[in-house]
Amino acid sequence: MASKLLSILATSLGPTQARLELKWMQQQARHPAQLTEMVTRRSRGEPLQYILGSQPFGPLNLLTRPPVLIPRPETEHWVIKLADRTSASPTSPKSLLDLGTGSGCIPLLLCHLLPQGSLRTHGVDISPQALDLAKENAAVCGIPPSSPGSCARNTRNTFTATLGNFLDPMFSEDATIDPPYDIITCNPPYIPWHEYLKLPRSVTAYEDPKALFGGPTGLDFYHAIAHLVRQTNFIRPGAVVALEVGHNQAQDVERIMRVHAHVRDTEIWPDPWGKQRTVLAHL
């Protein structure tokens, strides 16, 4: 049976990847029928992370299910780097807003990596499915919701998730938003239309297009973020804005932050494969 399943997977994945993925499925499957179902789903193009139901992200193992965007290794890379660059402590705590939080991967990993009691995080997303998953991931990771009041009152790092659309010009007036923030993070939808049409079916048929498509040029959400950043009292002096960007977008996003958000100090971080992946703005 195993050889037959391996042959089915190898047709679409190649022999090396097929052997690796079959091993992971065998570890997860509780009985032969379930393993067969997993292989069938994978051979039809469904992402392995949805089939297994989880995805490692740094030291965390996050729950995954469609249509919520699957956490990517390039995101993991810059979040770990951001944690290394963030000076936060229980005596000098930070408040973070994660825009389009999805699975909650960015704030939850930061909560895990930074000292306890040093970080209060708030994730917002337009998708109820994403918010449900983010809250489940917080519970799995043992990260509690924020208690009312300032983050200085929390003895542990916290995560709260609420429904919100940061493309809405009135987003900052939402009663659930509690500025000012020290850190804003976002892995927004940034794929332009011409690239979205070329994405593999494993992406377009399973992951939420609202988490992928960033408008005709892919830059719509960065303009919305710039609008938030330049608002009085939305972020504290010395705040950091960390934005994941798509292929060949780093300079454009850097320009948006400089021109429209009035940020003078910016830098670009490459991912492990040498692509310009993150724009960091220091206020």
Automatic annotation (TrEMBL):
It comes from the Eukaryota. GO terms for molecular function: protein methyltransferase activity. The keyword Transferase applies. Keywords: Methyltransferase, S-adenosyl-L-methionine, Transferase. Residues 32-53 form the Release factor glutamine methyltransferase N-terminal domain. InterPro entries: HemK-like, N5-glutamine_MTase, PrmC_N, SAM-dependent_MTases_sf. SUPFAM superfamilies: S-adenosyl-L-methionine-dependent methyltransferases (SSF53335). GO terms for biological process: methylation. Pfam families: PrmC_N. GO terms for cellular component: mitochondrion. The keyword Methyltransferase applies. This is Methyltransferase. It comes from Lyophyllum shimeji.
